[in-house]
Amino acid sequence: MIHRTIPAVQGPDLSLQSCWQEQLRSVITCPQHLLQILGLNATDLGYSEEALGAFALRVTPAFVARMEHGNPRDPLLMQVLPHQNEMRQQDSAQWQMDPLAESHYRAAEGLIHKYRGRVLLIAAPQCAINCRYCFRRHFPYEENAPSRKEWQQSFNYIREDSSIEEVILSGGDPLVLSDRQLEWLIEEIENIEHVKRLRIHSRLPIVLPARLSERFNRRLSMSRLQSILVIHANHPNEIDEEVCCALRASRDAGITLLNQSVLLRGINDNCDIFTMLSNKLFECGVLPYYLHLLDKVKGASHFQVEKSEALTLYNKLRAQLPGYLVPQLVEEIPGADSKTVIA
């Protein structure tokens, strides 16, 4: 693996960069460089070269700038650093490479049709950040990266099923696409008469907020489709002023903003943390949407919070917050007709 060395992050001045593509090209892929920035020693963190080989490190400087210098338990760092726990040999057979059985629902190359009325397009095969708990960390992106010509098979599939009213762009992360690529996809979807809604799932508004550019907001505001942007924040420390300003601009453009989180042991399995997160999100114009139990993907078992613990946390959260700030606690069960609501 070739690691790119970049200058040390000096705080939130990254917001002064005008080109989000430039920031994307500067993602940190070298663990030693990341730890040097944070003033940490790999031997004190459980860092694992073997885990790095199984799933590469990727993290944006903007996200690193929000990590606490010298803190080996920083909740943002723990989401991205390859750890020896990922290589646990005692993982049982329930921890799978494809925990949601998505391979069974592939209707065309890059197209997953799992639930009635909506389909998911794997719009991009890469992310700006590799979250260690990602349920698609083993996903065969090389088999789901169609060319523009091959995309027509997916569009034809959607066109022939009038029950499909919503198209979801996912990945990878769809917002790593250039504006031109993204606009082409949106236009193709707009040309399918019975599709009413476009939903985009992305971590970039959190880890690279400059991506929510004026051009992006304008294109979605002009669409005949109702536009929903589902972001992914797990901890209140992930949201700084730059993130909040970017989200408010998208909200002001008429885009519906929702957040989904994953419940992660040692990172956010705490009622006060989620109370802070929900309040911060709402200040930025985002409604909490889902709180997911961890998908049982191989390599992530050390993040698991048991269902009974999750219910206890959830009931405390309901007592702390108004109902509209309490996300639904859900898990995804392969073969079910929808996500399963736990509470």
**CATH fold name of the largest domain, please?**
TIM Barrel
* Domain tally: 2
Largest sheet: 10 strands, mixed
* Number of β-strand runs: 10
What class do helices, strands and sheet pairing give? alpha/beta
Rg, alpha carbons:
19 Å
Strand arrangement, major sheet:
1-2-3-4-5-6-7-8-9-10
- What overall form do the CA principal axes indicate? globular
Uncertain segments:
1-18
Query: What portion of residues is helical?
Result: 25-40%
Q: Which CATH architecture of the largest domain?
A: Alpha-Beta Barrel
Order of helices and strands: HHHHEEEHEHEHHEHEHEHEE
The N- and C-terminal alpha carbons lie at a distance of 44 Å
Please write the CATH class name of the largest domain: Alpha Beta
Supply the key terms.
TIM Barrel; 15% strand; 11 helices; alpha/beta; globular; disordered N terminus; 10 strands; single chain; 343 residues
In short:
The protein has 343 residues and is α/β, with parallel strands linked by helices.
Structure write-up:
The protein is α/β, with parallel strands linked by helices and 343 residues long. The chain folds into two domains: 12-87, no CATH class; 102-341, TIM Barrel (Alpha-Beta Barrel). Helix content is 29%, strand content 15%. The protein has helices at residues 20-25, 31-38, 49-54, 61-64, 148-160, 179-190, 204-207, 214-222, 241-252, 271-283, 307-320, and strands at 106-108, 111-112, 118-124, 166-171, 197-202, 226-232, 256-262, 287-292, 328-331, 340-341. Strands 1-2-3-4-5-6-7-8-9-10 form a ten-stranded mixed sheet. β1 and β2 form a beta hairpin. α10 (271-283) packs across α11 (307-320). The longest helix is centred in the C-terminal third of the chain and has 14 residues, at 307-320. It is globular, with a radius of gyration of 19 Å. It starts with 19 loop residues before the first helix and ends with a strand. Mean pLDDT is 90; it is low at 1-18.
